[in-house]
Write a structure and sequence with these properties.
Blueprint (H helix, E strand, L loop, with lengths): L1 E6 L15 H16 L6 E4 L3 H14 L5 E3 L8 H12 L3 H12 L3 H21 L7 H8 L2 H8 L7 E6 L1 H12 L3 H5 L10 E8 L3 E10 L12
Parallel strand pairs: 1-4, 2-3, 2-4
Antiparallel strand pairs: 1-5, 5-6
Helix pairs in contact: 1-2, 4-5
Length: 234
């Protein structure tokens, strides 16, 4: 059984509504659907997170492929919630001068491209604080455990021999955590992937089941449907 793990397409403005695909994100989704169609890739099971950007990405892929299949929706594939992010930012901004500086830059920036670069740095520093903070009532280890629940689902799917290919659409942080699990990385090393996972990038694994589920990497974070200049991180 093969697992195709895809990050959602480029979303909208991080300052207003980041849960709606941008026009460019729609283009990326269509290109990915066309790539799957042209390479005769068929999926027996479609799985996505609960977020709108996951849903839109999947719908546009299916539309380009000329199919309409029901999907399984799992919240373990979701990015941290907006409320959680705001609470973490509020919690750490009082303790971290670099975060204070970056947040002021973000508020004052009118350049969308620059704003996204600053946002990535803010995410990196929030997560670095969060990983090592055992006093925070919002636990990183709890979030990580929730993401890794997908492995239990894959374990169950692996018993269904008719399933050949599974497509999962998720977000940058869950994908980074899963890559960390596959490669045996520390939490901080895992989350370094966050600034590298491209929109609509594909990571392919062979799913093997022994005593526990095992994901054997085939290819990681590649975008065969996009030219280099068309690849985006946010």
């Amino acid at each position: 059984m093969n697992l195709y793990l895809v990050r959602h397409a480029q979303a909208g403005d991080i300052k207003s509504n980041y849960d709606v695909l941008s026009e460019y994100g729609k283009y990326q989704s269509q290109k990915l659907g066309k790539y799957f169609l042209e390479n005769d890739l068929k999926f027996d099971l479609w799985i996505r997170g609960t977020l709108n950007r996951h849903k839109e990405t999947m719908q546009l892929i299916q539309k380009e492929m000329g199919i309409e299949q029901n999907e399984l929706v799992l919240d373990c594939l979701d990015e941290i919630s907006e409320n959680t992010f705001k609470n973490l930012l509020k919690y750490y901004i009082e303790k971290d001068k670099l975060l204070q500086h970056l947040f002021k830059q973000l508020q004052n920036s009118n350049d969308l491209s620059k704003s996204k670069e600053i946002y990535i740095l803010i995410l990196k520093n929030i997560f670095k604080n969060w990983i090592y903070d055992t006093t925070n009532p919002i636990s990183y280890s709890h979030y990580k455990s929730k993401v890794l629940q997908i492995l239990e689902d894959l374990k169950q799917f692996a018993t269904h021999h008719h399933l050949k290919n599974i497509l999962i659409i998720s977000s940058g942080t869950p994908i980074s955590i899963l890559l960390g699990y596959v490669f045996g990385l520390t939490d901080e090393q895992s989350l370094n992937w966050m600034k590298k996972i491209y929109n609509t990038s594909i990571s392919v694994f062979t799913v093997k089941k022994k005593h526990q589920i095992y994901l054997e990497p085939v290819s990681i974070n590649f975008c065969p449907h996009l030219q280099y200049k068309e690849q985006t991180l946010l």
